[in-house]
Structure of Glucosamine-6-phosphate deaminase:
Amino acid sequence: MKIIKVKNQIEGAQIGFDIFKQALENDAKVFGLATGSTPIKLYEVLRNSDLDFSNSISINLDEYLGLSGDNPQSYRYFMTQQLFNQKPFQHSYVPDGVKTDTALATKEYDQIIDKHPIDLQLLGIGHNGHIGFNEPGTSFESKTHVVDLQPSTIEANARFFEKPEDVPTQAISMGIASVMSAKHILLMAYGESKAEAISKMINGPVTEEMPASILQKHNSVTIIVDEAAANKLN
Ligand SMILES: N[C@@H]1[C@@H](O)[C@H](O)[C@@H](COP(=O)(O)O)O[C@@H]1O
């Protein structure tokens, strides 16, 4: 793991941008993208840049179950606003949160990932070490699946909704095996609330109880952290 400590999200976004730029220069075609507050600055830099993703594919990690892409709280909507409107990709995949046949929705998403192997996967991290929406206890062998969100995740994400009761309790998430199949992984984390998860991810045992710890087994991972998120690292 390559760990890069930055002063703040602005510096982190610049380094993240350089990694995306270099990937494009090295003919990366498929970008795995993440939502949450962590990548917002990076998306701002990307959408205002002259990078061209019109021949690239993007595949997002996850989507809330029950929210359609035109719902402002959906991850599809978030991506459209933060990136795709200004920086269109040839095709952008986000799991379908409203397909009634979820077994089919998950199967189709796996087929998409199989067809478009991910060159660069962007990740944030949950307070409990989740990546995508792969909560503690998720199998490291998992592919796309329906997830019951943990109360702590619902609470953490409630800030994006009007009331906590509005947060969906389930999501569709790309699995951990698919995340691990990406050629290169870039994980970003900012703030004190991520320090514990970052420390366990890097120095703790590799265990399904800490989903992000599996990244220790990947041979090309870059971690961008600010001082607060890095303050429990020895
Ligand atoms: N599914 C997303 C994750 O992909 C994201 O990494 C995490 C952290 O969010 P934030 O970046 O807002 O701290 O939140 C959500 O649960």
In short: DSSP finds eight helices and ten strands in the chain. Residues 34-38, 61-62, 124-126, 132-133, 153, 157 surround GLP (CB under 6 Å).
